[in-house]
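Sequence in, structure out.
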Amino acid sequence: MSSLHNNLLLLVVALVATAITSAFSPSSISNNVIGRQQQPIIIPTPLRLSEENPAEWPEERRSAMFQTLLRDLQIEGVPLLGCDANQVHTLNAALWTTMAELGDQDDAQRACLILEEIPTSACLAFAEDFTVLKTQNRLMDHLPELKRFSVSVLGRGVGPALLIETNDRTEEEKATAAAQRAIEGTYDKEKTIAALKSFIDRVVVNLEACPYTKSVDISAVGLEQRGVTPGPVGYRFSPTTDACMTMSVFWNCICEMMGEPDDKLSSIMLSLPGIGDKDHDRFAAVVEIVGRYLCLFRGDASFGLVHFHPEYDRSAINPVDAASYGHLPPMSWLRAILKMGGHGAEAETLSDEELALSNYQRRAPHTAINILRMSQVNAAAGAKSIVDLDLGNGRIEKASGITLYTRNTLRMASIGGESLQSALDTDIAMQS
């Protein structure tokens, strides 16, 4: 086996050893939920490659066919990577790390990830959603590295194994990959995190964009009476420019949070300066798939996300006129939010340009993802935080955070675009 394949195996084994809290029941996909097991997961209808469905075969036949297919792959020289993941977060960490390592090679690669403790239906869910993702040009136009990949369940589901394959890079793709690797070497971890802390101190703490963050190092302050213990913020960094490696780093952060109590690790700020630098569409596409695969197995029941970018623009986030996981409310909702928040006059008099300054809540010096525990989010929001927001013309939408978004929108408008941009430019300059 090549050194690449040995490294892959070591990475997979190391990843699945990190988790502590069980959040995945091997016996049923309906229990495959991070931290919450009472709601079933909706699994897409399996792709039918023939009239015969392996799920309907006797167990003995499925097992025999599974072993036969694995032997065939071994004969072909395809690495068989054993993985003892038995939970959602370790499954995704192992899977995306394997994909990142395969995708790092210019030539075509194949590997089979064997997941004996994972229900085959969970493997099918991932493979089928990834197949759908590759048909969505809105995203794939900004995720070109994923076009090389195909992910399938071995034998249409005779057993829990994912066959991951990549195509050869073209000469143009090789040049692009080399340029991206060179860019990754220019990011300084200490300077990047220092710049992010400056932004958090300026906007989140001093402007009280989040009233429960009182310093750059501790979060969830003031929620003790609601059952939440304050704890340290973990700052994590990756210089990667690659979508698969971003997913790998993100899921390793999820594994870390699953393995630590709140008072040891309250939340994580993940710095990703190489993702979408000066390319907002790229940023939007990458963070969308981050949220997409967290939500695929209902991980959003346990974790909330907050996305940041130097040019953050909610009007360029899909969907433009509906809620989007991890993002600000749509710009078209802000006047209704202000009215519900008791500021009807400002809702009428503020210009669209002044309302758009609310984007500065999320304009950090580089791409970053704040990973929050939903226990904190729910405690901060309160039991009656979700309301019916009247958008006019008979349209009613569920919304939350009315008080917070009202205050932040008015505060950003009062500061003004020139001052906000000057302060952001200062944060960005700290990274040089």
